[in-house]
C-alpha cells in the first residue's frame, strides 16, 4: 500500500507534484495550517491586532477566514472581522453573500456588508450598462476590482483594522504578476508587491499567497467549508482567464513554476522604488499621483461625477 510521505502510516489523498510528496488527510490539513501561519509570521499573528477580512463567500476567502480564526482565537486582545462588499451583480452576489454570512454566524465572526450603491450610487450591473451606452470597451473586472478595493479599504479603515486580509491564492498572485509583466506595467507591479504606507491605506496581507488554488479547494472540502463556487457572470470576459490557462499549462509541464513566478517577483520587487503619491484626488480626497484617483477616473469616464 502507498503511504503518506509525512506520517508514513495513512493512505495518501493528495500528491503534490512539485515536491513529490504524498499527503494523507490529517498531514495535508496540518501542512496548510503551518504554511499559512508561516506566511503571516509572528509580526502579524500577535496580541492587539485587528484584521478585516474581505469575504466574497468563495473558497479562498472562507479558507482564509477559517485559518485566521484558528490562529487568532487563542490570542488575547486580537480580533478578526468579516468585510463583505455587495457589488450589485444580479443573483450571483446575493448567493455569495448568503454563504459568507452563514460562515460568519457559524464561527461567531462579526461581519459588515457595504454596497457599491451606497458608496458610489451605482451597482456594478448599472456601471456595465452605462459603459456600453457610452461605448467604453473596458473589462467589467477592471471597474469592479478598483471600486471593490476602495470600499474594502474604507470599511477596514472605519473600523480601525491594522490589516486588510485578502484571500488571493498562489494562482491569483502569479496571474497578477504575469499580467503586469506582459503589459510592462512596472508601477502596478510595485504596488502589487509593496504596501503603500499612507494613513488612508490599511496595509493589505495575503495569507494564502503561497497556496495553489487546487490546495485551497482541497482544504475547504476536507474541513467541510461550504462555499460559493459559481463563477462571476462577468469573468468569462476576462483577460485574466487567458493568463490563467497559460499558467496552468506551464505548471502542468513544469511543476512549481507558479511558485517560482511569485517568489522571483517578491525578490525583484525589493529593488524597485515605490513612488509616493504625494497629491490627493480633487474629487474624493484619496491619495493619487495624477490628482484624480482611479475610482474617480472611472466615474468621470462614465459621467457619473
Ligand atoms: Zn500522513
Ligand atoms: Zn477620487
From TrEMBL:
Residues 4-29 form the 2-thiouridine synthetase TtuA-like N-terminal LIM domain. Zn(2+) 1 binds at residues 4, 7, 24, 27. Keywords: ATP-binding, Metal-binding, Nucleotide-binding, Transferase, Zinc. Residues 51-243 form the tRNA(Ile)-lysidine/2-thiocytidine synthase N-terminal domain. It holds the Pfam family TtuA_LIM_N. The keyword Transmembrane helix does not apply. Zn(2+) 2 binds at residues 281, 284, 293, 296. This is Uncharacterized protein. It comes from Methanofervidicoccus abyssi. The lineage of its organism: Archaea, Methanobacteriati, Methanobacteriota, Methanomada group, Methanococci.
Amino acid at each position: 500500500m502507498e503511504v503518506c510521505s509525512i506520517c508514513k502510516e495513512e493512505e495518501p489523498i493528495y500528491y503534490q507534484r512539485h515536491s513529490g510528496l504524498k499527503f494523507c488527510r490529517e498531514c495535508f490539513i496540518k501542512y496548510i495550517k503551518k504554511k499559512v501561519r508561516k506566511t503571516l509570521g509572528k509580526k502579524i499573528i500577535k496580541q492587539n491586532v485587528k484584521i478585516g477580512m474581505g469575504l466574497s463567500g468563495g473558497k479562498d476567502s472562507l479558507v482564509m477566514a477559517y485559518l485566521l480564526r484558528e490562529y487568532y482565537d487563542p490570542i488575547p486582545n486580537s480580533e478578526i472581522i468579516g468585510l463583505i462588499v455587495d457589488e450589485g451583480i444580479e443573483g450571483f452576489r446575493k448567493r455569495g453573500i448568503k454563504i459568507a454570512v452563514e460562515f460568519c454566524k457559524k464561527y461567531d465572526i462579526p461581519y459588515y456588508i457595504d454596497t457599491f450603491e451606497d458608496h458610489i450610487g451605482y451597482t456594478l450591473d448599472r456601471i456595465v450598462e452605462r459603459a456600453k451606452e457610452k461605448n467604453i470597451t473596458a473589462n467589467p473586472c477592471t471597474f469592479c476590482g478598483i471600486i471593490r478595493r476602495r470600499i474594502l479599504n474604507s470599511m477596514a479603515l472605519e473600523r480601525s483594522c491594522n490589516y486588510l486580509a485578502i484571500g488571493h491564492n498562489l494562482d491569483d498572485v502569479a496571474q497578477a504578476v504575469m499580467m503586469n509583466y506582459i503589459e510592462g506595467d512596472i508601477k502596478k507591479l510595485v504596488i502589487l508587491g509593496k504596501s503603500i504606507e499612507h494613513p488612508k491605506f490599511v496595509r493589505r496581507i495575503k495569507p494564502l499567497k503561497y497556496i495553489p488554488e487546487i490546495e485551497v479547494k482541497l482544504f475547504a472540502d476536507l474541513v467541510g467549508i461550504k462555499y460559493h463556487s459559481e463563477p462571476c457572470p462577468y469573468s468569462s470576459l476576462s483577460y485574466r482567464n487567458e493568463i490563467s490557462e497559460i499558467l496552468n499549462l506551464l505548471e502542468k509541464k513544469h511543476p512549481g513554476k507558479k511558485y517560482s513566478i511569485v517568489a522571483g517577483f517578491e525578490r525583484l520587487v525589493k529593488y524597485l522604488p515605490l513612488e509616493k503619491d504625494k497629491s490627493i484626488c480633487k474629487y474624493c480626497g484619496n491619495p493619487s499621483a495624477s490628482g484624480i484617483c482611479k475610482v474617480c477616473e472611472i466615474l468621470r469616464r462614465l459621467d457619473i461625477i
